[in-house]
Amino acid sequence: MTAIQIGALIVLIVLVGLTYWAGYRGGLIDGRIEGIDEGKAIQQADNSESIRGLQLLADQWHGHYESIYARYTRALDASKLGETERQTLLEIAEKLRIAAETFSAFRTGKKLERDTLALRNQALAIAALLEPEALEKAA
Fold first, then answer.
1. What is the pLDDT of residue 135?
2. Which residue from 69, 75, 91, 67 is spatially nearest to 135, judged by alpha carbons?
3. In 3D, which of 82, 64, 75 has the Cα closest to residue 127?
4. Would the pLDDT of 65 be above 60?
5. Handedness of CA 57, 59, 65, 67 (dihedral sign)
6. C-beta separation of 121 from 100 below 8 A
7. Residue ranges of domains in the chain
8. What's the number of CA atoms in the CB half-sphere (13 Å) around residue 63?
9. Is the dihedral of CA 129, 134, 138, 139 positive or negative?
């Protein structure tokens, strides 16, 4: 081999080495970028899952809030009922008792009598809930 061939071989080996080194470094950089992107995607998926969980929790809380608010409004409306409503219910119960006695005189009025007595008992139960003493104890 001549000196020019030896110099060309050395230059060729150096160029192949530089090409290999540039490819190796480029691969490392690409791998690092791909790893960072994949890590961000995993983190975003975890965040999305957390957000979905929190959204579900907020929806459940909203439903629970609506249920509690409905109970509150019913209790508020019930607390507005007073002695006049209680007296009205007692009057209704008395009229239902009279109607039940009237229906019992008829042979075909047994079902009407049972229904009237059941309504009377319900009216008396509601009136008992509206007694002033019961309302004071509940408060």
1. 47
2. 75
3. 82
4. yes
5. negative
6. no
7. 1-80, 82-139
8. 5
9. positive
Joined tokens for residue 29: 């950089």
Amino acid at 98: I
Amino acid letter, residue 83? E
Among candidate residues 84, 83, 103, 96, the one with its CA nearest the CA of residue 123: 96
Check whether 138 has a pLDDT greater than 60: no
89 vs 54, residue with greater confidence: 54
The alpha carbons of the chain give a radius of gyration, in whole angstroms, of 44
CA–CA dist 94, 76 (Å, integer):
28
Q: Is the dihedral of CA 6, 8, 10, 12 positive or negative?
A: negative
User: Which DSSP category does 108 fall into?
Assistant: T
Q: CB neighbours of 97 closer than 8 A, spacing ≥ 6? A: 116, 117, 120
